[in-house]
């Protein structure tokens, strides 16, 4: 018989799968294991207290973060959250956050925005002022309520961590459920007690990293058990001899990077200039702020390695209105040429202005208008998820 004459038998259609059977009964060994585990957990709770040990399930969340605070700028929030849907994991309570950058990049400004947002959520903001150069009037311009703002001054790492522990214990005693934001400004400028007592800097080389690491080992667990957002501002320095890779390094050692849940790096990349209202095309523009690049270097809560460019204006900080104006022009929500801009309000009125000052003057009587533009702009970033 030739190969062509060979006929294969028809393939049988698979029968419908039988319904899943009931879960198998636990064996005698499994029952002995479960009984043993339950007795061990019970013994640990008797000695160490209830909740010291537990038997987890698939839905058990260890070290879960339930509260986040915004930076009051949707572009920065979007970068930190990694494009995740609401509720977005931004600056977490119960974890450590680092804001690093060179001078004049808005580190203290961003810390002030977070403090103001914490107060808006009903929490309390605290700042450890180590630089002794805090401008309280500027903090008030950023939205901070000074009547609910606690300023603690320290001279060394040891003194700062000691006062921070006293703060945490006081919070735990009076109201453990209160949201608290503690900012340290800045950890890069803080000396150790050994540096203060020793005139020879060569004898205390590397002591700062050791002191910070030892204190964070204790302090990290304290804030994790409470609703405390610990935020450190830090400085950057350039490593000598680095040809390839990232030449910038931050202070306080490698262990500080390990304990931080979120690490932001701020870089100044440009200058913002605007013409005054009514000025001619050839007139000199005035500097009103800087363009800052915010890069997410580390994030344990969401996808990281994202970056955004945001405006930082003098006296206003990371202005949300200027960000809305800038993004509205990019997305053509706001129309016009380089000189005059116009936007059609829901009422049908066409609002025209010239420059940033003109935008402020037109929108100030109608605070709802910038919010309407913001909704359209935010929708663009929501689609990038």
Task: Give the tags.
385 residues; alpha/beta; Rossmann fold; Rec A Protein, domain 2; 2 domains; nine-stranded mixed beta sheet; three-stranded antiparallel beta sheet; 11 helices; globular
Instruction: Output the CATH topology of the largest domain.
Output: Rossmann fold
- For the record, what is the CATH homologous superfamily label of the largest domain? P-loop containing nucleotide triphosphate hydrolases
> Strand pairing plus helix content: what structural class?
alpha/beta
Quick one: CATH class of the largest domain? Answer: Alpha Beta
SSE series: HEHEEHEHEHEHHEEHEEEHEEEHH
Mean pLDDT: 82
End-to-end CA span: 64 Å
User: Counting H and I runs of at least 4 residues, what is the number of helices?
Assistant: 11
Can you give the helix content as a percent range?
25-40%
- CATH architectural name of the largest domain: 3-Layer(aba) Sandwich
Number of structural domains: 2
Q: What's the alpha carbon Rg, rounded to whole Å? A: 28 Å
Sequence-ordered SSE layout with sheet pairings:
Elements: H1 28-48, E1 68-69, H2 74-81, E2 91-92, E3 96-101, H3 107-120, E4 124-129, H4 136-141, E5 149-153, H5 157-174, E6 180-185, H6 193-197, H7 207-224, E7 228-238, E8 248-250, H8 254-259, E9 262-274, E10 286-299, E11 307-313, H9 320-330, E12 335-336, E13 340-344, E14 350-354, H10 355-363, H11 368-382
Parallel strand pairs: 3-7, 3-9, 4-5, 4-6, 6-7
Antiparallel strand pairs: 1-2, 7-8, 9-10, 10-11, 12-13, 13-14
Helix pairs in contact: 5-7, 9-11
